[in-house]
Amino acid sequence: MAKCDKCSNQSKFFLPYGPHKYCNKHFNSFFEKRFKKTIRKYKMLSKNEVIVVGVSGGKDSMVLLHLLEKFYSKEQTIKALSIDEGIPNYRNKAIKVALKEIKKRNIEFKLVSFKKKLGKTMVDVMKKTGRNKTIGSTCSYCGPFRRKLLNETAVEMNATKIATGHNLDDEVQSIAMNFFDNDLKRMARLGAITKGSKGFIPRIKPLYLAPEKEIIAYASLNKINHFSEECCPFSWQAKRNAFRTMLNEMETKFPGTFYSILSFFENLKPSIQKKEKTTFCKKCNTLSSGTLCSACLKLEKIN
Ligand code: SF4
Ligand code: ZN
């Protein structure tokens, strides 16, 4: 293998979109520098924030928690929040890993469940949706419910920001999905930072510019514990899978595709935001495209 771009050591990481070649040490510093730069570039944090990190136990949120603690815990208050959707053999195991890590860190923590807050687990939801496409896939309920509980609980925790582990791959998939659905309203809500409003905490995605593969590499290099054994048993229903496969193939063939799609979206965003005014749910204050947000509408549907 060739030499690292920054020193005379053998490179261990080849990042084709650069292209960059790094040894372990310089990959680490490249990854961490980009993380801090993302926070600065999108003005994600001011002084004395209370950041509630959405922690699922997976690699993205565990890396996010690690980095926020490492670089921001002196000036900011960091808290953690886990949401249990009630998915057996999956979330319970992931949350166990999350709790173990959070306890080591001695930070304020909250665990809320779909069952307690909404009266339904995702298994109950799945029984209603099944393969019944007329009321949507199981995942189309899970996401909005999770976002709703994240906001409501973060309000109780006095958060000024909610940080989530969304990475570059997630964001590019969401942009492509909204493009294929011709859904400008939804697309206008994407991005590194979402504006807040009364009762709605602004959301930040500090891993917005970090490709998924690099998050996996960073987690392994820094021995960050996370849950990776199993996939959600309902994930076969996720439309996102088809987009992930298609986009990964494009990125492999044409390195840099992910960053190009992201730049295209960022160039477009001001004009779609002008056209698609931000509105909030009358019932729960969450960002929404109509009078009620999709979580509140979906709750009505399955009740
Ligand atoms: Fe929820 Fe679907 Fe993700 Fe499973 S795959 S956690 S059901 S959104
Ligand atoms: Zn709502």
Shape by Cα distribution: globular
Strand tally: 10
Helix content: 40-55%
CATH homologous group name of the largest domain: HUPs
Strand content: 5-15%
> Topology as H/E string?
EEHEHEHEHHHEHHEEHHHEEH
CATH architecture of the largest domain: 3-Layer(aba) Sandwich
User: Total helix count?
Assistant: 12
**CATH domain fold name of the largest domain:** Rossmann fold
Mean pLDDT score: 93
Outline the low-pLDDT stretches.
none
Cα-based radius of gyration, to the nearest Å: 19 Å
Describe the structure.
There is one protein chain. The protein has 2 domains: 1-40, no CATH class; 42-278, Rossmann fold, CATH 3.40.50. The chain has 12 helices and 10 strands. It is of the alpha/beta class. The strands form 3 sheets. Strands 5-4-3-6-8-7 form a 6-stranded mixed beta sheet, sandwiched between helices. The chain has a two-stranded antiparallel sheet with strand order 1-2. Strands 9-10 form a two-stranded antiparallel ribbon. The termini are far apart. It is globular, with a radius of gyration of 19 Å. Zinc ion binds next to helix 12.
